[in-house]
Amino acid sequence: MIAARRGVVAALALVLALAWFAGLDHRKLIKPDEGRYGEIPREMVASGDWLTPRLNGFKYFEKPPLQYWTTAAAYRLFGVGEWQTRLWTALTAFGGIVLAGFAAARLYGATAGVLAAAVLAGSALYVVTGHLASLDAGVAFFLSLAVFAILLAQREEAGESSRLRWMLAAWSAAALAVLSKGLIGIVLPVAALATYLLWQRDWRTARRLHAGAGIALFLALSAPWFVAVSLANPEFFRFFFIHEHFERFLTKVHGRYEPPWYFVPVLAVGILPWLPALPGAVVAAFRTAEPGRFRPLRWLLAWCAVVFVFFSVSGSKLPSYILPMFPALAVLIGRHLQLASRRLLAVQAGVAILVGLAIVAFGSGLSDRASGRYSPGQIEAYLEWILAAGGVLAAASAAALWLAWRRRTLASVIALALAGLASTQLLLLGHESLAPAYSAYHLAQRARPAIGDGVPLYAVDLFDHTIPFYFERTVTMVGYRDELAAAISWEPQKFLPDVAAFAAAWRTQPKAAAIFRTGDFERIAAEYSLPAEIVARDARFVVVRKPGP
User: Beta-carbon neighbour count of residue 347 at 10 Å?
Assistant: First the structure.
């Protein structure tokens, strides 16, 4: 019986892995994040400098290097490409599912583990973020590892040697979280611990954190790169620690300000299709009386609350910032669903059916609401994917409803998880239809043969993060600074301040190419009498080269 159950779990894990990793190479990288986090590792491999991250040749100190290193290693092993760029994100997001399942199984049994893993694998925001090349999945994985390791270390039944191992794992995970995205890797776990200890008045747990050995291990893992990069780059310390952390959190300097309630709808949509179960799971975690002084459910609840509040009061917000709370939420929801009534399971599936039908209705009217950014052909191509996603969500959720009505809790939750995963994956895969509006891939494919290798390439009053990646070279930026303004001030010799400087440089080059916005090329060429011939164009950009033999 036990062997049969393990076989079922192994089969489900295999199906999940195939569904999770299958589409990584289907989509072209899109701006800005995927282009940015694909290009920085590409430049590491090309230059051989793995200490100082660079974007388009400029020092890029916004984030630490762990994901750059792992992606660069993937490029070394497998070549440069889309799936290699997304591999670390997909692996760490998948690892988060394994962590949630493992922690829930250790606490509440194998069924709770399967339910927690299913909840996370089917959550819309988690699936989307786990398949885009950004830093959020990696930091969410290591923060979740720290949170679950603390939980397992502090259980009443944990022996002293087991407690030491798990706490050292927690400190190590916090260090890797810092190397993934900065100081939140240690600030958030410490804030959550302080919140939990004050809430529960559990001072004994504070004495069982193995802080001496843990801090030493944390610094041994996290500090060397920060010291080395600071010694090599005097600009690093102030920019990274002051600008990228305190100014980003306390001010609107990055232009990402949203109201304090911003993450309420983000969470409501991002946790779909499990939204009906969320309130009950939170209340149950708050009310449940657990044996012993350490309360695992309340610890997870404290973690989720700290993450949510921290980013809600921040002056910089993006939907993916709250991703680190999702694995813990999955454990809370998975345990709640283990004891759920038939009514809750039915309501949950019914809401998912309605969402699927709403997606179909939205897709049916998409052509009428489309902006001028997309061609009719692109919209029509994406429409097929949207309708498929809505149809799959509605149909699979109907199966989950039928299973719920027959009191088959586990099967109903798994069916709903597959519905959430499949429908979200379809929406992601279909987005490739709109790639020309967000990616330089198609333009580069047409332009590169005509430009040739080693020819200087200018980007005039623009910067698309996918241009250096797909043209496989850095470009000389003209006029436009955007997020590289500080880096340009450190290395101004790599930048041309205006079109007049570009025109002068263009005339002195025996061979050169340039990228313009579609509406700018004719005007600038006429104003500065630039000799240039068009080699490729699309709705956004025009690529020209200097005429010559």
Answer: 16
- Which residues lie closer than 8 Å to 441 by C-beta, 6 or more apart? 28, 29, 435, 466, 470
**Residues 44-53: pLDDT tens digits?**
999 999 999 9
Beta-carbon contacts of 100 under 8 Å, excluding residues fewer than 6 positions away, are: 116, 117, 119, 120, 144, 148, 327, 328, 330, 331, 334
Expressed in angstroms, the distance from the first to the final Cα of the chain is 76
Angstrom distance (rounded) from CA 146 to CA 152: 10
Cα 145 to Cα 172: distance, rounded to the nearest angstrom: 9
Task: Provide the pLDDT for residue 156.
Answer: 84
List the structure tokens of 243. 């600008």
Rounded CA-CA distance 81/60 in Å is: 21
Distances (CA, A) of 438 to 132, 140, 199, 466: 13, 26, 47, 8
Residue 350: what pLDDT?
A: 97
Q: How far from the centroid of its chain's Cα atoms is residue 272's Cα?
A: 17
CA distance 52 to 74: 18
Q: Is the pLDDT of residue 249 over 70?
A: no
Question: How many whole angstroms separate alpha carbon 135 and alpha carbon 284?
Answer: 32
pTM over 0.90: yes
